[in-house]
Amino acid sequence: MSDTHAQTVAFVRETEIPQSPPPALEAGAVKWVRENLFSGIFNTVLTLLALYVVVRFAIFVFPWFYNGVWEASSRKECLDILREAGKGTGACFAVLVDRWDHLVFGFKYPQDGYWRILLAFLLLIVAAGPALFSSLPRRMLLFTAFYPFLAFWLVWGGSLWLPLTILGLIIATMLVFRLISSQIPVNIRQIVSGVIGVICGAGLAYLLFIGAQELVFIANSVGTEGMIAPIAYGVFWIMAIFAFVFCVPMGIFVGYAIYNSYEDGGLVSIVASLLFGYLAFVYLLSPIWMALNSIIPIELQAVASRDMGGFMLNMLLGTICVSLSIPLGILLALGRQSPMPLIKGVCVVFIEFIRGVPLITLLFVANVMLAYFLPPESNFDLILRVIIMITLFSSAYIAEVIRGGLAALPKGQYEAADSLGLDYGQATRLIILPQALKISIPGIVNVAVGLFKDTTLVSIISMFDLVGMIRGPIQNSTEWTSVYWEVYGFGAMLFFVVCYSISQYSQWLERQLNTSHH
């Protein structure tokens, strides 16, 4: 070794060498395109064909969008503007500007009340936040519980004291439940449950009597030669079975409560408190809120249900029906899994009956036939009838989805709950149901999206939702006749935004609840 090498000091780098960038074909958009669009010969051919179709479609549609007319008072004026400008084709978007309020709010809702609908929608986002995102403060759930009563006042108007009185009576009913479940002796619970059973039986008999009386009267007035008489009698029996399906579970729960009253009065307390709530609503609601309104009047202009329409009606029906059908579907799914044959049988009959009947049939029943099974002087709101039918329809499908989630749980989860000494209610609430709901999220969201789109069926029973407004007042007007693509495309865009948002939230929720380690 030379003297020069012997005296050389070894080099030590003081800074870290920066990482080399990955190859261009293995990172970013280029990698995604190569792996997903041009990964093979067959995939490349499909990609090129799809690009060709997209380009041809864009060439055809882009001039139609670009040449669109936004300021005109009729379709004829739109065509004149396009002709004067020398444009061969173009959309008539002026219909959206001219009928914007009709598409969103309907044509009968007061224009000075549009702010109420917008405020109710904004508050809906605030109220749904703590229920959808666990990171928000739990105290916000108090506003979530209060929101339905505030939204009812904003949308329908009237006195503020009416929804507040309803809220107060609900709280009073809950207090009565706690009192009965903790203080009332067992023998008193037996008496209460017996009285409730008698009331349920009398209510069923009265319901069937009213329906039979009305339908027989119609059949006799028409005569036996036509087809209406046998149809009326047939519909009567269908509705009788339908009413039976709803009334029998109540009696079964009452009987089950009587059977278990010697050791646990929980179900008796529930039914008794519901009876108290019903009597309180019948005899105390009107005097209380009218007295409060006379002392401190807080009112908005009242709006009848028949005056609601547009996309607002779709949002109203979709939000309420989804919110009600999920808990009802959970109860039906648990009832179908119940070891008690009567409860299981009733839930099975209800679910299979509802799933076997088209929704449009139930809507016709709500619109026409349901009134025959109510007292002659009653005025059952049409929107409320539609909400009940859509909720029952969707709850049957949600029940089947949740039942699938319950069946997917391994048997060890039930055995683990038993080993911890949990009773049925605790095991279901703490262990079984949370896991079943997590498994059922995609199916529940699928039913919710389908339900929201099915709200357009109410246009068939003369309710002017978004589709009803397009098919009725807009296209039948002399100004905007034969305008199709613009209005239906706008409606499709609104539904897509809502349904896509629901789908994206469900995917986010699945990622948040994912507990797998792979």
UniProtKB/TrEMBL annotation:
Q: Which processes are annotated in GO (biological process)?
A: amino acid transport
Q: Does the keyword Ubl conjugation apply?
A: no
Record GO cellular component, one term: ATP-binding cassette (ABC) transporter complex
Q: Where is the ABC transmembrane type-1 domain?
A: 311-506
The membrane topology noted for this protein in its Swiss-Prot or TrEMBL record is: Multi-pass membrane protein
Domain of life, per UniProt, equals Bacteria
- Write out the transmembrane intervals: 41-66, 113-133, 192-211, 231-259, 266-291, 311-334, 346-370, 382-402, 439-463, 483-502
The reply to whether Oxidoreductase figures as a keyword in the UniProt entry is no
PROSITE patterns assigned to the protein according to its UniProt record, in alphabetical order = ABC_TM1 (PS50928)
One Pfam short name: BPD_transp_1
Q: What is its main location?
A: membrane
Compartment annotation: Cell inner membrane; Cell membrane
Q: Which family does it belong to?
A: Belongs to the binding-protein-dependent transport system permease family. HisMQ subfamily.
Annotated protein name in UniProt: General L-amino acid transport system permease protein
Source organism per entry reads Litoreibacter ascidiaceicola
The beginning of the lineage is:
Bacteria, Pseudomonadati, Pseudomonadota, Alphaproteobacteria, Rhodobacterales
